[in-house]
Amino acid sequence: GVSGTTPDAAASRGAPHEGFLATLALVFARPGLRRLVLESCAVQGVEKLLKPYIPVFLALAGLPVVLELSQAGGGLHDAAARLPARSVLWIAVVVACLHLFSALGSRQAHRIAALEAPGARVPGRLWTGVFVMISLQVIGVITGSLAPAAVGFVGFAFLFNAWRPAFLTRFDVDTPPDRQATILSIESQANTAFSAILAPVGGALVDQWGLPAIFLLCLVVVGTLFGLRDPENA
């Protein structure tokens, strides 16, 4: 019998597959692209991991006050009703600042992206800020102090929303125009895979060692990437 498949048709079907593999190899071969994908996985993975635990910590921050009042008599219900207005106000302020500074980070992101000239160290500054903010979160959660944790939460929210546009600017510079869609897809899938691994690991650590473990894990992830040599500034 005569096959209805011509060599050209077979080659055209194989071309997208080969193109994807070639692009994947390009990501691993270019230090700048590899760094961007790793950076994206770390930042977005940490943000997804921490987000559900922030309200947990804020709730726990007010719990000692409630328990102290409940021991004076009247039970937890009455204690919650007598929770000092200052404690409630602090928690409300932190939540409001999280939303406010997230929006502010997005609004100011174009200025940060505009600094992405050759030799600019915006990525280094952003990563220093992220590392400091998560360190403050760790200090606050371990010591049970709301103030450093709140600064860390709000600061990280601002930096996260400012980071993405700066990231895309660097991405445009380092990526061949005809490969950008494919590399963005690879970056997205890498984020999903990393988050799928990080989430159960973080949950297991919390079950074993308590809430501070999840923040320490995030600090290790960010610190590991922060310590890697940036090929652009090597």
What does this entry look like structurally?
This protein is mainly alpha-helical. It has a single domain (29-226), classed as Growth Hormone, Chain: A. It is built from nine helices and no strands. The protein has helices at residues 7-29, 31-50, 53-71, 75-81, 85-114, 122-143, 146-174, 180-209, 212-226. The longest helix is centred in the middle third of the chain and has 30 residues, at 85-114. It is globular, with a radius of gyration of 23 Å.
Q: How many alpha or pi helices?
A: 9
Largest sheet: none
Element order: H for helix, E for strand = HHHHHHHHH
CATH architecture: Up-down Bundle
Strand proportion, as a percent range, falls in: under 5%
Helix content: over 70%
First and last CA, distance? 61 Å
Low-confidence stretches: 7-12, 63-83
Count structural domains: 1
Shape: globular
Which quaternary structure do these chains form? single chain
Q: What is the CATH domain class?
A: Mainly Alpha
